[in-house]
Design brief:
By secondary structure, the protein is an alpha+beta fold. Helix content is 60%, strand content 15%.
């Protein structure tokens, strides 16, 4: 790989990583997690994304001695090192805040050591603006290390080792997953720095940080998804957002990479020009197939269609004919396909939006041989070129996707058909614009898609060299005055062959506009698909969400009920994470006396008053449950100091409370701090908190007895 291509590859990787980190930070921001540690994690993702963008700029502008490029290269390199320093600063703050949230106060010596290293690195970096101690640039505007780069790197390693020691020192206060994530975050950059020391010309440090941050984020999402107060609706919304963002990032990175490559390689040789055109064609074809593949995949995962097909095999195909037809018609009208189909494997009924069109007969009907091949190949999905019996025998590309039941058993096939003419129009557009010839062929060399319909599934191309072709990149071959690029398209299981009739041409402007248009169209298509999925899921799950919510809430107080408490206790028991929690048991004093003498309305007033006092003082620190008539439990996630403040507020609210039937509110309490009793289970904690609560109740009654005797 030459220097130009290596720089382009590195810049594309940096931009791709930067966009991913940026979008992940936005996801956390949308999530709205109130914990300070996760706010710091968001800042770390932002800093890494900026470091990626700075490094991408450094690769894009290096090697050019124009005034702007010289300044941009120097600014970019300074930005990379400065972001790494700031990242270290935020990370040590993150670790301190993380442990504090678990009730641990780490010794300040760790932060002092890291702060000293950060200060020294800042001095080295700023001094390098006026010297060449750390790095310098040659006459061709290329970056080179100098002696103090190794000092800077050594100080970074010291910071990482300090953080690693902290992780081991306080590992018992955090979950195993989070501990492993912290270790990965500290060890991965060390490995990257060591590799960076011996490998010159490419940057791997930021890549190491990126991998480490993904592991940290995985731990975050795991912990976030396990919190019960997140409703089913919120979790599904986050899943949709994550999937949509990942697909946008993938397409966006592809477009950005194309734009950068076009700009850099427009002055390069004919091979590079031809390869860039081939990449644009490949991206365009992949985007053209993206929508039908996603739609077919969505159909295969649709619960309603699965149930219809199961009934078709168990009862009779005609029983669900109208239902299946209506479902397929909604897909057809929603996405504009002329063919949408489903096949039941047991009954062999072939459903379209017109109902049962036919019954598959692989033995006697040669037109149904596709179904036999699909079963024999055992693929999750495949593409098949065939005539559409239900659409005037139009030549189409069918995306066949298997239907499986809850047990993973194959029960049928579903999919959509894309008219060949729409694909041919795309090929014709590229062929006219770039003076090229495009073919999609199978492994035997048989043409599957061509702008000339007479060649489809009739003519063959040379496939003797396919053993040299893979999915990573195009195989380039010079053939006289023309060039041929071949690539295996894994998602289609076809080979893309692009013949450039005139390699010595390229239009940067037009290709850039084309890339942007493809990107926008792709986003719109994905947005439509994900919106439809979200709306369908929201309608289907609304009733479940409401029922679930009502089943976990106490009707009188609005707090969580005993069922919610038992489910959360089971979750904590399974995760063995008592060190993260504080359990508080509470019981209203004198409720029986109030009920017997003033009636149950007065008793309910006391219970509601107790619930309001607990909710106001502790509600933001965890979850509150009413597990009996006058029994309450709080499972909190906070430090001991925060708990004491909450209890003081709790006591004050009791003192000032007054109701219409009763003027006094008294609540006994007992609490157990998990990280002080790590050997306990959640059941043990409840029993101990219960004993402490009854001890507090006895003391309360004893004092009240004395007060009554004095009065």
């Amino acid at each position: 790989m030459n220097t130009v291509n290596m720089g382009i590859t590195q810049a594309a990787m940096e931009i791709f990583g930067g966009f991913i980190c940026l979008m992940l930070a936005i996801i956390i921001m949308i999530n709205g997690n109130a914990r300070d540690s996760w706010k710091l994690l968001k800042k770390m993702l932002f800093l890494i994304s900026f470091a990626f963008f700075f490094e991408a700029c450094a690769y894009m502008f290096r090697g050019d001695t124009a005034t702007l490029n010289i300044y941009m290269t120097r600014i970019s390199n300074f930005g990379v090192f400065f972001m790494n320093i700031m990242l270290t600063y935020i990370f040590i703050k993150y670790m301190y805040k993380l442990f504090e949230e678990k009730g641990i106060r780490p010794h300040k010596v760790y932060k002092i050591m890291v702060d000293i290293c950060i200060a020294l690195n800042l001095i080295i970096l700023v001094a390098n603006l006026f010297t060449k101690w750390m790095y310098y640039f040659d006459d061709k505007n290329y970056y080179h290390r100098n002696t103090w780069w190794y000092v800077y790197t050594a100080l970074c390693i010291v910071c990482i080792l300090v953080c690693t020691f902290m992780s081991f020192r306080y590992r018992k206060s955090i979950t195993r997953l989070l501990f492993l994530a912290l270790l990965c975050y500290t060890f991965t950059p060390i490995v990257a720095i060591i590799v960076q020391t011996f490998v010159y010309g490419i940057s791997v440090t930021n890549i190491g940080l990126f991998i480490a941050m993904l592991i940290m984020l995985a731990a975050y999402l795991r912990e976030w998804s396990s919190v019960r107060e997140r409703t089913y609706k919120e979790r599904k919304s986050l899943e949709i957002i994550v999937l949509f963002v990942i697909m946008i990032i993938s397409m966006g990175a592809s477009v950005v990479s194309c734009i950068i490559s076009i700009k850099k390689l427009s002055l390069s040789n004919s091979e590079n020009n031809s390869m860039m055109i081939a990449h644009m064609v490949s991206d365009g074809i992949e985007n053209e197939f993206l929508k039908p593949i996603v739609v077919a995949e969505t159909m295969s995962n649709d619960y309603s269609l699965m149930q219809y097909i199961k009934r078709s095999g168990k009862e009779a195909p005609e029983v669900v004919e109208d239902d299946v037809a209506a479902y397929l018609d909604s897909i057809r009208n929603g996405f504009g396909y002329q063919m949408v189909f489903a096949v039941c494997d047991k009954s062999r009924a072939y459903y379209t939006y017109n109902g049962i069109t036919k019954y598959i007969d692989i033995e006697n009907d040669t037109h149904d041989i596709w179904y036999k091949w699909f079963l024999e190949e055992g693929k999750h999905y495949d593409l098949d070129v065939d005539t559409d019996e239900a659409n005037h025998w139009e030549l189409s590309v069918f995306i066949n996707n298997e239907l499986v039941d809850e047990n993973g058993e194959m029960i049928g096939v579903c999919g959509v058909g894309v008219e060949m003419t729409s694909l041919q129009n795309l090929l014709v557009k590229y062929e006219k614009k770039y003076d090229i010839k495009i073919d999609l062929i199978d492994k035997d060399g048989l043409i599957q898609v061509d702008s000339d319909a007479t060649r489809i599934e009739k003519d063959y191309l040379d496939n003797s060299y396919f053993d040299k072709v893979d999915a990573a990149d195009f195989l380039y071959e010079q053939m006289g005055k023309t060039s041929r690029m071949t690539k295996y398209m894994k998602d289609l299981d076809w080979y893309l062959v692009v013949e450039d009739k005139n390699p010595d041409k390229i239009s940067v402007f037009s290709m850039t506009i084309s890339a942007i248009i493809i990107f926008v169209i792709g986003i719109i298509m994905m947005g439509i698909v994900f919106f439809v999925i979200y709306i369908r899921d929201r309608k289907a799950s609304k009733e479940i969400i409401e029922r679930r919510k009502m089943s976990l809430v106490d009707e009188l107080t609005g707090l969580y009920n005993r069922r919610a408490y038992e489910e959360d206790c089971k979750l904590i028991l399974n995760e063995n994470s008592v060190s993260d929690i504080i359990m508080v048991m509470m019981d209203v004093n004198g409720l029986k006396y109030v009920n017997d003498n003033f009636g149950h309305l007065a008793g309910d007033e006391l219970i509601i008053g107790a619930a309001d006092s607990i909710r106001t003082s502790m509600g933001k620190l965890g979850k509150i449950y009413r597990i009996g008539g006058d029994e309450f439990v709080a499972i909190l996630r906070c430090s001991k100091d925060t708990l004491i403040d909450a209890i003081n507020t709790f006591e004050h609210l009791q003192e000032i409370w007054s109701g219409s039937h009763e003027c006094e509110l008294s609540i006994s309490k007992g609490y157990v701090i998990g990280n002080e009793h790590e050997e306990m289970t959640i059941t043990d904690m409840k029993e101990l908190a219960d004993k402490l609560m009854y001890k507090d109740k006895e003391e309360c009654y004893r004092q009240k007895g004395k007060i009554r005797r004095k009065s």
